[in-house]
């Protein structure tokens, strides 16, 4: 046996007898000489079971019962009553006592009642643990997948969402980092306030400070009016900083100060403005490596990296590819008004064999195209784009024969960038993940090769 019991009785002899019997049974026993002393002990620790006399000097057993259950409705209490006060015992049970024992106590009745009480306590604890586990693993809208790595992501989101701690989300492009950030916001007390997402790679360095913190009239050329920034606009809510690794060092210092001091200063302003926002950031870079190279401030990294969530790439999620493909099929079949029944097995095999460099975002695009191209009730292999038909090449090999005359690396890179831009409809932010580049790197390469959208 194990468990803690507080015995409350104003007769020392009764306390000593009960302590001796129950200690021998293996229970941890504490005693109190009255209701007042019992309440004092309950302020400092918890007991599984309270075994209290009904009639006591000062605070009676009934009053103690009411006060204890007001504070802790799940507290298990057994009432001891003298012969002839059974009506009071029944009243105590109506008010929430587990059971009662009639004095003088019979040893066997005492042991049996305490054992039954602990069976109930065990069930309540098990139920509480199950509810906690369910709360930690409850499904989140838009978070689809049964892979254990995704279950762990959902568990962490459910656990930390109600807090205000900063979160850093790691994951390749297209893995759903913004979906995770939104899920954290939606599960927090800030859910009714604003959620702002900003891509740090898509905003020029010169405009980043104004975008985040706002500016005063006349702060710079073109600043004709005062404008508030995202931090002020998101007051009480959440700011999601995507591609945080692309933020320059100077701006990192200003962001760190805003997080530490919980205040910002508009560009051109002289007044510090208090702000209350939760910061969630995301990156596909190894920020620890970037701090060693001097590209990312170590102090900011530790501020952002209080809780880390790592999203697995789609290629590591096994059968989630099928689950996600089916979800996207239903989504686009309904929105496009094209009644499809599913994905044909040969097409499904192609999807499972592909490595998905663009992750979930790429899969969604492929299924949307498949729905539009399908000529039967099922998506067939011919409805899928060419790139997913090619199986991953063996390590160290190329998906084409090396020409005898050799190749030009520059020309090959230029052609790959052209193909990526065409597929992304000339949107840099969509093309960059296909090439495994950041927004800024692709922008530089486009300028280097003089590549522009055809007129």
TrEMBL record:
UniProt GO MF annotations: ATP binding; sequence-specific DNA binding
Domain called Sigma-54 factor interaction: residue spans: 143-372
Key words of the record: ATP-binding, DNA-binding, Nucleotide-binding, Phosphoprotein, Transcription, Transcription regulation, Two-component regulatory system
Modification sites for 4-aspartylphosphate: 53
Gene3D superfamilies, per the entry: 1.10.8.60, 3.40.50.2300, Homeodomain-like, P-loop containing nucleotide triphosphate hydrolases
Boundaries of every Response regulatory domain copy: 4-118
SUPFAM superfamilies: CheY-like, Homeodomain-like, P-loop containing nucleoside triphosphate hydrolases
Pfam families with a match to the protein in the record: AAA_lid_14 (PF25601), HTH_8 (PF02954), Response_reg (PF00072), Sigma54_activat (PF00158)
GO biological process: phosphorelay signal transduction system; regulation of DNA-templated transcription
Protein name: Response regulator containing CheY-like receiver, AAA-type ATPase, and DNA-binding domains
């Amino acid at each position: 046996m194990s468990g803690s019991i507080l015995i409350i009785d104003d007769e020392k002899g009764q306390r000593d007898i009960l302590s001796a019997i129950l200690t021998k049974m293996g229970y941890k026993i504490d005693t109190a000489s009255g209701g007042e002393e019992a309440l004092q002990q309950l302020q400092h620790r918890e007991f599984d079971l309270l075994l209290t006399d009904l009639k006591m000097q000062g605070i009676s057993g009934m009053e103690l019962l009411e006060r204890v259950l007001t504070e802790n409705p799940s507290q298990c209490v057994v009432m001891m009553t003298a012969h002839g006060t059974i009506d009071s015992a029944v009243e105590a049970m109506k008010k929430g006592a587990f059971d009662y024992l009639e004095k003088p106590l019979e040893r066997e009745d005492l042991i049996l009642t305490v054992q039954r009480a602990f069976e109930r306590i065990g069930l309540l604890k098990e139920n509480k643990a199950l509810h906690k586990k369910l709360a930690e693993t409850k499904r989140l809208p838009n978070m689809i997948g049964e892979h254990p790595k995704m279950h762990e992501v959902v568990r962490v989101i459910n656990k930390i969402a109600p807090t205000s701690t900063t979160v850093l989300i790691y994951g390749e492009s297209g893995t759903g980092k913004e979906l995770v950030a939104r899920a954290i916001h939606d599960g927090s007390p800030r859910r009714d306030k604003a959620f702002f997402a900003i891509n740090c790679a898509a905003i020029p360095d010169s405009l980043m400070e104004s975008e985040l913190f706002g500016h005063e009239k006349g702060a710079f050329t073109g600043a004709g009016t005062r404008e508030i920034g995202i931090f002020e606009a998101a007051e009480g809510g959440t700011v999601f900083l995507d591609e945080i690794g692309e933020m320059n060092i100077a701006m990192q210092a200003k962001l760190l100060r805003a997080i530490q001091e919980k205040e910002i200063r508009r560009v051109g302003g002289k007044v510090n403005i208090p702000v209350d926002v939760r910061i969630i950031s995301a990156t596909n870079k190894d920020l620890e490596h970037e701090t060693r190279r001097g590209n990312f401030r170590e102090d900011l990294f530790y501020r952002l990296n209080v809780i880390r969530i790592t999203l697995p790439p789609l290629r590591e999620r096994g059968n989630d590819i099928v689950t996600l493909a089916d979800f996207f099929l239903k989504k686009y079949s309904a929105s496009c008004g094209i009644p499809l029944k599913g994905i044909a097995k040969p097409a499904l095999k192609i999807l499972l064999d592909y490595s998905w460099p663009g992750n979930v975002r790429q899969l969604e695009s492929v299924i949307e195209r498949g729905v539009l191209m399908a000529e039967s009730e099922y998506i067939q292999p011919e409805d899928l784009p060419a790139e997913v038909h090619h199986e991953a090449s063996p390590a160290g090999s190329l998906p084409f024969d090396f020409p005898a005359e050799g190749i030009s690396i520059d020309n090959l890179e230029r052609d790959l960038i052209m193909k990526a831009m065409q597929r992304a409809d000339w949107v840099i932010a969509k093309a960059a993940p296909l090439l495994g580049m950041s927004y800024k790197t692709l922008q530089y390469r486009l300028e280097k090769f003089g590549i522009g959208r055809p007129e």
